[in-house]
Automatic annotation (TrEMBL):
GO terms for molecular function: RNA polymerase II complex binding; translation elongation factor activity; zinc ion binding. The lineage of its organism: Eukaryota, Fungi, Dikarya, Basidiomycota, Wallemiomycotina. Transcription elongation factor implicated in the maintenance of proper chromatin structure in actively transcribed regions. The keyword ATP-binding does not apply. Transmembrane segments: none annotated. It is found in: Nucleus. This is Transcription elongation factor 1 homolog. One of its GO terms (cellular component) is transcription elongation factor complex. InterPro entries: Elf1, T_Elf1_sf. Residues 83-102 are annotated as: Disordered.
Length: 102
């Protein structure tokens, strides 16, 4: 009497879904997954660099900073450099002038 082999379930490569994305598209060379982000929580610094065009950026971080946050900081910083005229103007919300009524 031979034992029946239990049908094996196909096991694909396990992906750790809890891992946050750490690679992003580069603003300069437009390569996907070319920009790598490193967060140095001990020193409160985040480092970003593109492995394709060697673009670099660094910024201060805190314990809540995620790699994507640093990436957005980089985008913001480059927006200011590339488009100084498009700097966000502070628009004061003035209440509508009320005409004096009788
Ligand atoms: Zn690049």
């Amino acid at each position: 009497m031979g034992k029946r082999k239990a049908a094996r379930k196909p096991t694909g490569p396990k992906k750790d879904k809890t891992t946050l994305p750490k690679t992003f598209e580069c603003l300069f060379c437009s390569r996907n997954d070319a920009v790598q982000v490193k967060l140095d929580q001990k020193n409160g610094m985040g480092y970003l660099n593109c492995k394709v065009c060697n673009m670099r950026f660094e910024s201060t971080i805190n314990s809540l900073t995620a790699p994507v946050d640093l990436y957005h900081d980089w985008i913001d910083a480059n927006d200011e450099v590339n488009f100084p005229q498009q700097k966000k103007k502070r628009v004061e919300d003035r209440p509508p002038a009320s005409d004096e009524e009788d």
